[in-house]
Amino acid sequence: MSTTASTSTPAHHPAPHASTAAAGRSRGPIASLASVVVGLAFSTLSSWIFGTALTVLGDHTFWKGRGVERAMAAVEEDFGYLQGYPRSLMVDDTVALARDFAERVARPFHWLGAPAFIARTAAIEPDVEANPHARAIRRIVKEAGRVVETAIYVAQDTAIRLAIAFFALPAFAMAILIGLIDGLVRRDLRKWTGGRESSYVYHHSKRFAWWFLTAGFTAYLAWPFDGFNPAYLVLIFATLVAAAVWTTASTFKKYL
Predict the structure, then answer these.
(1) Rg for the chain, CA atoms, rounded
(2) At what angle do helices 114-122 and 132-167 cross, to 10 degrees?
(3) pLDDT tens readout for residues 162-174
């Protein structure tokens, strides 16, 4: 009787996909820095577009034809706030740097001939004898000039507020440092006293810390109403960031 020797081959498991392995790897410092820069540019651009849209909308609703004047007044108001804080840990002359930012963002509009276009549209007078289509076109062109002028002032105000946010970086750095140190002390106390830990609170507080940094920045850049002192905004969001960092550090896992 012949016996047949059966050989069993080991099962081969497919290797993990390359994209899955790459997704599990954390980003390096260059990629993280690039994402921060891109996010900052996107937030600034979206704030300018959103602020211009809100001002134009207010020109037809809240302010009834005074949108350009409101945008111009916002620029002067933010300069007035800066004059109360002429020095910063970042620069010696805050007003000069903010004015330089405002002049730089206005240059592309000048290169494209925006001032001449605004002057021509401002000189358009309504013609009651023209046909309805001609009157509508004149009205649209005149409104386009006001929108372009509003966009210039909003861009300048966005640049000034960007400079103010830059001046406030030491306050946020101090808030993060205080929240981190005090939170780590709280974590050690919880570790040595056998306290409970919550990954749910940790992950949500970490998300809120980043949200407080970015949301407050974007909201301030796009804020279309006047009478808002940026010092109060810095105080509020620096406190929220410190609280979120404190919660994140204090609820970090006890054992690594």
Answers:
(1) 28
(2) 140
(3) 888 888 888 888 9
